[in-house]
């Protein structure tokens, strides 16, 4: 009996020491924003104070009840701008998540389908707001198999926006959009892809761009994250969208952080 009690006590002390010594896992809540009929929240998980994952919880109600039509504004206005937890901002390059709903999609042709843009920015909100696309310089190098196309707009869209083309798919208050070349060339509507954003020749965001139809499947999936040259700070190397049927929500998980 005494021996068994000693083992139990020793195990408890070891577990306590491991937690105090910095090995205990914890979830850190970030900011939230009301979007349509749901609430999107950012979060992080840490072990001993070191970041393991950064992410966001996206209720399926937000996806399901996104309006079929929305006023066309230029520059686009995100439906949410949500700060990432302080530990993410302190230990990685990422600062803020913005969410854009595109009910009719946008050029190029494969993206003319209802979809969401989830921008994880590495620059401050004031810098995002200052992007006007007048600087048309492109980065010297892109991730492997990515392209940064120039898009000529249809006349009605060009008249409304006051521009005839988007150099490097640059959108004011967003930046340029580099996209996997295979997705730009596909003949049908895209399902999901990982975009890398640039402005003034430097990378400024990573963006899971996901069709509403894909999200409404309520199924988990992964997206490859390319190596991005020139982005300071720790960056994730993995993106996993985990669907939780109990919570009726996606958990977007960014992990595998390393300096690049």
Write the layout of secondary structure elements.
Layout: H1 2-23, E1 25-35, E2 38-47, E3 50-59, H2 60-64, E4 80-83, H3 86-91, E5 96-102, E6 115-121, H4 125-129, E7 146-147, E8 151-152, H5 155-161, E9 165-166, E10 176-180, H6 181-185, E11 192-199, E12 202-211, H7 212-215, E13 221-224, E14 234-235, E15 238-244, E16 249-255, E17 258-259
Antiparallel strand pairs: 1-2, 2-3, 3-16, 4-5, 5-6, 6-12, 7-10, 8-9, 10-11, 11-12, 13-15, 14-17, 15-16
Order of helices and strands: HEEEHEHEEHEEHEEHEEHEEEEE
User: What summary fits the major beta sheet?
Assistant: 7 strands, antiparallel
End-to-end C-alpha gap: 54 Å
The class by helix and strand makeup works out as: alpha+beta
Report the C-alpha radius of gyration, rounded.
21 Å
General form: globular
Tally of contiguous helical segments? 7
Structural commentary:
The chain is of the alpha+beta class and 260 residues long. The chain has seven helices and 17 strands. Strands 4-5-6-12-11-10-7 form a seven-stranded antiparallel beta sheet. Strands 1-2-3-16-15-13 form a six-stranded antiparallel beta sheet. Strands 8-9 form a two-stranded antiparallel sheet. Strand 15 and strand 16 form a beta hairpin. Residues 1-22 have low confidence and may be disordered.
């Amino acid at each position: 009996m005494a021996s068994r009690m000693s083992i139990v006590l020793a195990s408890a002390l070891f577990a306590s020491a491991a937690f105090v010594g910095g090995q205990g896992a914890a979830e850190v809540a970030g900011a939230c924003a009301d979007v349509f009929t749901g609430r999107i929240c950012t979060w992080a998980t840490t072990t001993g104070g070191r970041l393991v994952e950064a992410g966001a919880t996206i209720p399926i109600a937000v996806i399901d009840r996104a309006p079929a039509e929305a006023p066309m504004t230029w520059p686009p206005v995100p439906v949410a701008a949500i700060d990432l937890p302080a530990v993410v901002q302190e230990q990685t390059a990422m600062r803020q998540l913005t969410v854009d709903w595109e009910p009719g999609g946008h050029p190029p042709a494969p993206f003319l389908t209802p979809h969401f843009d989830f921008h994880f920015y590495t620059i401050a909100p004031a810098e995002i707001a200052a992007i006007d696309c007048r600087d048309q310089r492109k980065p010297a190098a892109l991730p492997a198999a990515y392209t940064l196309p120039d898009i000529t707009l249809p006349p009605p869209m060009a008249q409304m926006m006051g521009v005839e083309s988007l150099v490097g798919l640059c959108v004011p208050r967003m930046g340029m959009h580099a996209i996997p070349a295979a997705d730009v060339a596909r003949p049908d509507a895209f399902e999901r892809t990982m975009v890398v954003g640039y402005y003034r020749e430097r990378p400024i965001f990573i963006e899971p761009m996901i069709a509403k139809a894909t999200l409404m499947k309520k199924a988990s999936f992964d997206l490859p994250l390319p190596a991005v040259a020139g982005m300071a700070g720790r960056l994730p190397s993995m993106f996993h969208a985990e669907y939780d049927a109990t919570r009726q929500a996606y958990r977007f998980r960014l992990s595998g952080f390393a300096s690049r």
